[in-house]
Specification:
By secondary structure, the protein is α+β, with helices and mostly antiparallel strands. The chain is built from six helices and four strands, in the order ββαααββααα.
Length: about 350
């Protein structure tokens, strides 16, 4: 199969030149040189016929080849996809098998290690259990021996206490035994007529026992009252002996020891010692110590020293009034320390 096509084109051609022309003889005759020029135009029609049969045969052959190639590519693609899928399955299976094999191996190793640890601990627990059983048996034996010893001891104590109670209250037990024997005899014999008499005697005896109990309680109360009165009298006597008569404006002295020391590093240390009998409140004690810290020793007059010395002499005479060697030695030491203190102060 082909196709035909016509082409029309106007062709122009320029021409020029010269020509020698001879002309017949005439008056003069001869030759003449003639120049000429111009352009010639001509319409040219060209019919072109193209035969496409070989091309179409080539295209058909190429199409067949392309179709074959497409089928081959499709088949190859399918085969490649199948091969990729199979290889992927094989690789996945290998990876999964390797992973689970590794996990199984790891678990087996851990299981073996744990079994060894468990066996070792079970062996240790068995040994400890055996030790505990031995200790339990030993403690049970010790407890049995100790409990038997204490049971025997308490049984002996109970028997001893029972004997002592019977010895202390022997008349009462004998009386109860006699009364029980008499009552039993009266109840199991025909001596019913003596029941009233024995009942009366029992009532009198119960009344006497009750009266004796009341008297005992009264005696204990009187003893407690006597002890209370003695303590009260002793307390009043002590208060009277320690009390000092006065109008309320008198001066009272208490023993106070105030120490003020200076170390080598020029640090001053202050300590105040007061008997707790006079100052139980720590704030008052600290306030007194601060006041003593502010007072200079030179400000204490001789009259105060004489008063203190007189008070100390009276206290020494009252507290150390004995004539034994110890009291004499203590009085001498106190007087020596007091005189030394007064001399240093002067």
């Amino acid at each position: 199969m082909g196709y035909r096509r016509r082409f029309r084109q106007t062709v122009s051609c320029h021409y020029s030149g010269s020509k020698t022309v001879s002309y017949p003889a005439s008056q003069s005759g001869g030759t003449l040189n003639v120049n000429y020029s111009g352009t010639a135009y001509e319409d040219v029609d060209v019919d072109v016929y193209v035969d496409t049969s070989p091309f179409e045969e080539g295209v058909q052959s190429c199409n067949s080849s392309v179709n074959g190639l497409t089928a081959s590519v499709g088949a190859m693609n399918a085969a490649q996809c199948i091969a990729i899928t199979e290889n992927a399955d094989k690789i996945s299976k290998s990876i999964i098998d390797g992973f689970f094999h590794t996990v199984r191996t790891d678990l087996s190793t851990q299981q073996a290690e744990l079994e060894q640890v468990i066996e070792a601990r079970l062996l240790l627990l068995r040994q400890q259990a055996a030790t505990l059983r031995n200790k339990q048996k030993k403690m049970s034996d010790d407890y049995a021996r100790t409990s038997a010893r204490y049971q025997k001891l308490f049984a002996d104590l109970n028997n001893e206490l029972s004997v002592r109670i019977h010895e202390v209250d022997k008349p009462v037990f004998e009386l109860v035994k006699a009364v029980d024997t008499q009552s039993d005899r009266m109840l199991h014999t025909d001596m019913v007529q003596t029941a009233v008499t024995m009942g009366k005697e029992s009532s009198v005896l119960q009344a006497q026992i009750s009266a004796a109990t009341v008297k005992n309680h009264a005696l204990e109360a009187m003893s407690q009252a006597q002890a209370f009165l003695k303590i009260k009298a002793t307390s009043e006597k002590t208060i009277q002996e320690t009390s000092v008569e006065g109008t309320g404006d008198d001066n009272y002295f208490i023993p106070v020891c105030f120490l003020k020391t200076v170390s080598e590093s020029e640090r001053v240390k202050r300590e105040c010692f007061i008997p707790d009998l006079y100052f139980k409140n720590k704030s008052l004690k600290d306030k007194l110590c601060e006041t003593l810290d502010e007072i200079e020793l030179e400000e204490i007059g001789m009259c105060v020293s004489d008063t203190v010395q007189s008070y100390m002499q009276s206290e020494i005479a009252n507290k150390l009034s004995g004539d034994d060697n110890h009291s004499i030695r203590v009085r001498a030491m106190i007087n020596k320390m007091l005189n030394k203190l007064i001399n240093n102060h002067e």
